[in-house]
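job 3f2a | input accepted
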Amino acid sequence: MFTIATWNINSVRLREGLVARLLQDEGPDVLCLQECKSPVDKIPLTKFRDLGYHHIVARGQKGYNGVAILSRLPLEDAGDRDYARLGHARHVSARLENGVVIHNMYVPAGGDVPDRTVNEKFGQKLDFVSEMRDVFHADKPQKSILVGDLNIAPREDDVWSHKQLLKIVSHTPIEVEHLLAAQDAGGWVDVTRQDIPSGLLYSWWSYRAKDWDAADKGRRLDHIWASPDIANAAHNSRILRPCRGWEGPSDHVPVLASFDL
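job 3f2a | predicted structure (261 res):
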């Protein structure tokens, strides 16, 4: 059995201490980070290695984007893909010794206006997710786990108000349609919702809220998916809401799941 966690850390160097705290408190076997905002050679690995995380597969760039997989388990680099040809460090994959392939994804946020004719970033987001669909359709995932900040909350109970967010980027019908098409193309199973099938569930709260906890206007933007051949091995999904209240937090919190593999 192993446990995997995914977390948009919003700068791994700025929040090195929070990553270390999570590794100490929860001890996931694998931690996938997004928005590292760091070249790979500047990721602060010493503290993580001291905690037993000796293996890393990452793609980075200065100041923006960046994805990393930290692991206590041996793993090998399984490559990356430049989705939508953006030249961004938004995907990396790794293979565990048991053959499981982990895809760590950071889908573009998409800007503020949900109209690609006036907002290039929204078009890039849709193109990114469309290419995910095409890749999964052409090469059906097997023995695979996809995690990351997908920047889309697909279900009505993945947001604090479905009606009020229908025209807000991350929950618009066209984004949800694109994400579900990508999920369906690969037969991916939403592990979090397999374990927690109903009820409001969030992994992100805006920095703009004076009191994020009291307002509780969250969205579930961070996901763990499994290919259909291993989805039944998943269990113990959870979202670590208290991490949003840590000092100097990311606006996202970790999402975890365990696999009997």
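job 3f2a | The first strand starts at residue 2 and ends at 8.
job 3f2a | closed
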